[in-house]
Amino acid sequence: MDSYVGTGDEWTVAGRKFASRLVVGTGKYKDLPTTAAAIEASGAEMVTVAVRRVNLSDRNAPMLQDYVSPQRYTYLPNTAGCFTADEAVRTLRLAREAGGWNLVKLEVLGPAPTLYPDMPATFEAAKALIKDGFEVMVYCSDDPIAAKRLEEMGCVAIMPLGAPIGSGLGVQNPLMIQMIIEQAKVPVLVDAGVGTAYDATFAMELGCDAVLVNSAIAMANDPVLMARAMKAGVEAGRLAFRAGRIPRRGFASASSPMTGLIG
Amino acid sequence: MSVTAENMCVTVNGETLAFTPGLTVAGLIAQLGLDTRKVAVERNLEIVPRSTYADVRLTPGDALEIVHFIGGG
């Protein structure tokens, strides 16, 4: 069966190829060993990371890199916590120096309780980062016009939210996500809002290139098991998308032939 | 204390710290007990390339940010 499914179903962002269509965040875990075990179980090849000050009062604290190897996983540094273009550029310049790569996740958020993408600030930061040579994967609203504009500016991936960050509500606006996918010439990832495996499946069935999940794995009762479930969910959704689902109909259609009945 | 032996104050990650004048970025990282391969340094809003750590000397009043990667979404 696996030979029928094929192995060549990779997706490409900024010239880098990935077999796994699940990108995972590394935040919110109770400890680093659990982070490492869950990421392993997820099969992800790309992980998002944050950039923060070194804690000078606890210099021997274990570091993420000791558990999640940057040699094995593609680190995608984010701009979480940045509210202006200047802060985003400063943060990612530091990330580029720390890691030596220029593929980044831009996210400029509004205040709680929505943490909704601040699109004017996102546009401004995207412009500054692209000018500075970064390859920008951009977290954004599920707005097809904004998504197209970000693509035209040179963003290498468009990442609309499925639902508010950490809400676990699943894709709330599938029509708009689908419109964004249909018009995009760069990869589209649903980022934020996945609550459980079938949310990831649903997002993939819409035709996205990949799904980004953090809270749903990290905050599950058993993060390692949920990571494995997400892997299966993403694979199922991708295969179903490739297979082509049956049309929805408002009437029944018998599965067994109505001819040849005994009688 | 003579003038030359006086410590200079720099700000590291928002904390004011005193060091021997002439300290390099490499020296600072070593004194802080950090691994140069796992951090990045910004000095007065400019990135300090890792290859220049041994050459860049701190001056009094410098503001440094030393960052690393942590878990994030």
From TrEMBL, chain A:
Keywords noted in UniProt: Cytoplasm, Schiff base, Thiamine biosynthesis, Transferase
Segments forming domain Thiazole synthase ThiG: 13-257
Intracellular or extracellular location(s): Cytoplasm
Keyword Transferase: yes
Subcellular location, principal: cytoplasm
Pathway note: Cofactor biosynthesis; thiamine diphosphate biosynthesis
Gene3D superfamilies per UniProt: Aldolase class I
Catalysed transformations (reactions): [ThiS sulfur-carrier protein]-C-terminal-Gly-aminoethanethioate + 2-iminoacetate + 1-deoxy-D-xylulose 5-phosphate = [ThiS sulfur-carrier protein]-C-terminal Gly-Gly + 2-[(2R,5Z)-2-carboxy-4-methylthiazol-5(2H)-ylidene]ethyl phosphate + 2 H2O + H(+)
Catalytic residues of the enzyme: 105 (schiff-base intermediate with dxp)
Binding residue positions for 1-deoxy-D-xylulose 5-phosphate: 166, 192-193, 214-215
Enzyme Commission designation: 2.8.1.10
PANTHER family: THIAZOLE SYNTHASE
Subunit structure: Homotetramer. Forms heterodimers with either ThiH or ThiS.
Similarity field: Belongs to the ThiG family.
Function as written in the Swiss-Prot or TrEMBL entry: Catalyzes the rearrangement of 1-deoxy-D-xylulose 5-phosphate (DXP) to produce the thiazole phosphate moiety of thiamine. Sulfur is provided by the thiocarboxylate moiety of the carrier protein ThiS. In vitro, sulfur can be provided by H(2)S.
HAMAP family recorded: ThiG
Name of this protein: Thiazole synthase
Lineage summary: Bacteria, Pseudomonadati, Pseudomonadota, Alphaproteobacteria, Acetobacterales
UniProtKB/TrEMBL annotation, chain B:
Protein name in UniProt: Thiamine biosynthesis protein ThiS
NCBIfam families per UniProt: thiS (TIGR01683)
Gene3D superfamilies in the record: 3.10.20.30
Domain of life: Bacteria
Native organism taxonomy: Bacteria, Pseudomonadati, Pseudomonadota, Alphaproteobacteria, Acetobacterales
Entry-linked PANTHER family: SULFUR CARRIER PROTEIN THIS
Pfam family, one: ThiS
